[in-house]
Design goal:
With 220 residues, chain A is an all-alpha fold. Helices cover 72% and strands 2% of the residues of chain A. In chain A, strand 1 (156-157) and strand 2 (160-161) form a beta hairpin. The termini of chain A are far apart. Chain B has helices at 3-16, 27-32, 37-66, 75-97, 99-105, 109-112, 116-127, 132-160, 172-187. Chain B has one domain (3-191). The chains are: A mainly alpha (220), B mainly alpha (194).
C-alpha cells in the first residue's frame, strides 16, 4: 500500500510525464482547448497505459530484445484500437471532438517510454500501477493546461459559463498559438516551484554546514 | 481530382493547415531536434522522404488489403506496422545503395517511426478519402510544411541562445513561448480559404 502511494505520487507530482519529463507534447497541445476533451484524452491514454504496461510486463520474458520496440508498438496499438472502438460506441461526441488524436495515442511517447523504462523490467502488478500513476499524471497536466485555456480563452469551465454575457474571451488562448504559450507558462510555473524547492534544500544544507564551520573557527 | 485541386491541397497543407502550428502533429521532434538549422533540415528531409513513401504504402495497404476483407478497424495497427517496416527498409536501402544520403539522414530515421506526423498523414488521407495521387501529394506537402516549421524554428532558437530569460523560463518553457509566437505568425495564413 505504501509503495502504491509512493508510485502514485511519483507519477503525478515528482516525475510527472508531461510537466517534468516533457513527454507527449502533441496531445497536450492539441486536446486542451476544453476541460472535457482533456479529461477524455487523459483517461483514454491512462487506460491504454495500464493495459499496455501490464501486458508488456507479462510478456517481458518472451519478447526477444532485438524486436522489443516493434512488439511493444503492436501491443500498444491493439489496446488503442480497443479504446477507439469503445469510445466510438459509447462516447461518440467525445470521439468526434478528439478525432484523430485517439489513434495517435499509439505514438504517444509516454506509453512507449514507460513500456521500455519500467514495464519491461518489473513485475506485472507494479507495472500496471506505474501505468495508472503515469496516466493520472498525464491527465493532471492536461487538466491544468485546459483549465487555464478554457477559462481565459472561452470564459467557461466544463462548458459552464463563468463570467456572464459581458465577458469578452481572449480567443488567442484557444487558438494553436495559445496552446504553446499556456503550456510554456505552466511548465515555467512548475520549474519555479522546483527551483524554490531546490533552493530551500540547498539553504538547509548550508545552514547545517555553517554552524560546524563557525564552531571550528571558534576552537581555532 | 484535377491538377489545380492537387496544387491547392498542397498549398493548404504546407501553410494554412501546417502540421506543427495549426494541427500539432509531430511536436516531439519539432521541439527536440530543432536546436541547429542543419540538424533540423536533416530531420525535415528524412521526414519528407518517409512521409511521401508511407503515404503511398498505407494508401495501398488500406485499399487493397484492409478494405476488401472488411478489416478497416485494424488500420491503426496496420499503418504503424507498415511505417515501422518502411523506416527499417529505407534505412537498410540507403545504407547499402546511397551511403552519402544515409550518412546525413541515418540518425534521424529510427526516430521517425514514433513521429505522429507520419501516422496522422496516413490516417488523414484515408479519412478525407483522397485518391492515390492526392494521398501521396498530401504526405509530401505536409512533410514540407513540417520541414519549413522546424527549420524556421531552429533559426529562432539560434537567436534565443543569446537571450537571458527569467530562471523559471530557462530551457523548455521559453522554447514553447517562442513556438507560440511563431504559431501566431502562421495563424496569419489561416484567413486564406481555399
Amino acid at each position: 500500500m505504501k509503495s502504491f502511494l509512493r508510485q502514485l505520487k511519483e507519477g503525478i507530482l515528482d516525475n510527472n510525464p508531461t510537466l517534468v519529463q516533457l513527454l507527449g507534447m502533441c496531445p497536450t497541445l492539441a486536446t486542451t482547448t476544453s476541460v472535457q476533451n482533456a479529461l477524455g484524452m487523459g483517461l483514454a491514454a491512462t487506460a491504454v497505459l495500464i493495459f499496455s504496461n501490464l501486458f508488456v510486463s507479462l510478456l517481458r520474458k518472451f519478447i526477444p530484445k532485438q524486436v522489443r520496440i516493434a512488439a511493444y508498438i503492436v501491443i500498444i496499438s491493439g489496446f488503442v484500437t480497443m479504446v477507439e472502438l469503445l469510445m466510438k460506441a459509447y462516447l461518440n461526441s467525445l470521439y468526434q471532438s478528439l478525432g484523430i488524436f485517439i489513434p495517435l495515442i499509439v505514438v504517444n511517447c509516454i506509453i512507449l517510454a514507460r513500456a521500455e523504462a519500467f514495464a519491461s523490467k518489473n513485475k506485472p502488478l507494479p507495472s500496471a500501477i506505474d501505468g495508472l500513476s503515469m496516466g493520472l499524471g498525464f491527465t493532471f497536466a492536461l487538466l491544468l493546461v485546459s483549465t487555464v485555456r478554457e477559462i481565459i480563452g472561452n470564459g467557461t469551465f466544463c462548458g459552464i459559463s463563468l463570467f456572464g454575457e459581458g465577458y469578452a474571451p481572449a480567443l488567442l488562448l484557444v487558438m494553436p498559438a495559445g496552446a504553446f504559450l499556456t503550456l510554456g507558462c505552466v511548465i515555467a510555473a512548475v520549474q519555479k516551484i522546483r527551483n524554490m524547492g531546490e533552493d530551500k534544500a540547498r539553504m538547509e544544507k548550508l545552514s547545517q554546514v555553517e554552524p560546524e564551520s563557525t564552531e571550528k573557527e571558534e576552537t581555532v | 481530382m484535377s491538377f489545380t485541386d492537387i496544387l491547392l491541397l498542397m498549398f493548404s497543407a504546407i501553410l494554412v493547415e501546417n502540421f506543427i502550428f495549426a494541427k500539432f502533429y509531430g511536436c516531439c521532434p519539432f521541439l527536440g531536434v530543432s536546436e541547429k538549422p542543419d540538424t533540423a533540415l536533416g530531420m525535415g528531409m528524412a521526414v519528407t522522404f518517409v512521409m511521401t513513401l508511407s503515404g503511398a504504402a498505407t494508401w495501398a495497404v488500406y485499399h487493397f488489403l484492409l478494405e476488401p476483407f472488411g478489416l478497416e478497424y485494424l488500420k491503426t495497427v496496420a499503418f504503424i506496422l507498415v511505417i515501422a517496416a518502411l523506416v527499417q527498409f529505407i534505412e537498410m536501402f540507403l545504407r547499402k545503395f546511397i551511403p552519402a544520403l544515409y550518412a546525413s539522414l541515418g540518425i534521424y530515421l529510427p526516430l521517425i517511426t514514433t513521429n505522429c506526423a507520419v501516422l496522422s498523414a496516413a490516417l488523414l488521407a484515408i479519412q478525407n478519402e483522397y485518391n492515390f495521387i492526392s494521398a501521396v501529394a498530401f504526405g509530401f506537402s505536409s512533410a514540407l510544411g513540417f520541414t519549413l516549421a522546424i527549420v524556421v524554428f531552429a533559426g529562432v532558437r539560434g537567436k534565443m541562445e543569446f537571450a537571458d530569460p527569467p530562471r523559471a523560463f530557462k530551457g523548455f518553457p521559453i522554447t514553447l513561448i517562442a513556438a507560440g509566437l511563431l504559431a501566431m505568425a502562421f495563424a496569419g495564413f489561416s484567413g486564406i480559404k481555399l
